[in-house]
Each structure stands twice: as C-alpha cells, then as structure tokens.
Amino acid sequence: MWKPNQPGTTPATPEPQRPAPSVSGGAPSFEPARPTAPTSSPVSAAAGDQATIGKSLIVKGELSGSESLYIDGKVEGAINLPGNRVTIGRNGQVAANISAREIVVLGKVRGNCRAADRIDIRAEGSLTGDVIAARISIEDGAFFKGGIDIRKPGAGDAPKTPENSPEAAG
User: Fold this and answer.
1) CA distance 145 to 129
2) N or C: where does the chain have the smaller number of CB atoms within 10 Å of the terminal CB?
3) Tens digits of per-residue pLDDT, 27-82?
4) Are 30 and 8 in contact (CB under 8 A)?
5) Cβ–Cβ < 8 Å for 97, 79
6) Domain positions in the chain
7) What is the pLDDT of residues 131-146, one digit of tens each?
8) Separation of alpha carbons 83 and 69, rounded Å
9) Rounded to an integer, what distance in angstroms lies between the CA atom of residue 92 and that of residue 74?
10) Positive or negative CA dihedral for 79, 82, 84, 85?
11) Distances in whole angstroms, Cα of residue 27 to Cα of each of 32, 106, 162
C-alpha cells in the first residue's frame, strides 16, 4: 500500500504517484494534481524575482539587470532587461527606450520598445513610440502612436537577404 511522506523514501525528482487501481472492483483513487511551475524560458526570473520602482520614486539614467521590473513611478533614460519582463504600472510614467523579453503597459510610455517575445498594451495604457516585437496585443481603449515591426523570434536585427535566409543556409 502506498504511504505518502515517509522519511527516507522521497524520490530525487518529486512526481505525482498514482496507486494501481484495485482489482476488487473499487473505484481507483488518485493523488490530487499538484500545481506546476509556469513553463518559461530558463533565462526568465522566477515570479518572486521582480524589482519594483514605487509611486514616489523618480529614476533618471540607464536601468539594466537580470530580473523582471515593475515600474509605478517615473523613469527617464534607458531600460535594458533582456530575457525579463518590464511592467509599467497604472501610475508609471516612462520616458525611455525599453528592451526586454516582454513589455506590459498599463501606464504611460514615451519611447521605442523592443521585445524578444511580446508587447501588451492594456486598456488603461498609453505607448507613444515605435515597437519591435514578435507579438503585440493592444486592448480596446489603449492608446498607441507609432510604428510596428513584427519580427519572428530569434530573427535579430539582420534583414532577410538571400545570403542569410534559412533557405540559403541548408
């Protein structure tokens, strides 16, 4: 019989274990499903690894790092967080070029945005500037003024030419 949480019998990688259904005609019982971690790239920071710039803070200069960032204050300059998420909160006011894996706009952004994955402008959000991303989402009620350049993930800055296209590499 299966007995959970016995000392010394914990496997190296915990996996849900299911007992074999009984042959005596009883209904099989299974262990409840455990919540799994969100599937994300290994480069992205864990949910708890997020820095915050609060409402009363004003930052002027260049921001760079290796964790996600939530901005609810004012930022002027440049934001470079490759592989991470930048969220501009409802009170956030950003006058900067932003480069990140994912950018979520709930406040106001004035500057160009480059995202390796996606840019999401929510209903309360405002973005004035050019956008380069693999995906973009603009909710009803959001404000956007600028150009959009959709690029496939991993395309980089190189324009498609016959010598560097995937067909020529083969």
Assistant:
1) 6
2) N
3) 544 444 544 444 444 344 445 689 999 999 999 999 999 999 999 999 999 999 99
4) no
5) yes
6) 50-150
7) 999 999 999 999 999 9
8) 11
9) 6
10) positive
11) 15, 50, 62
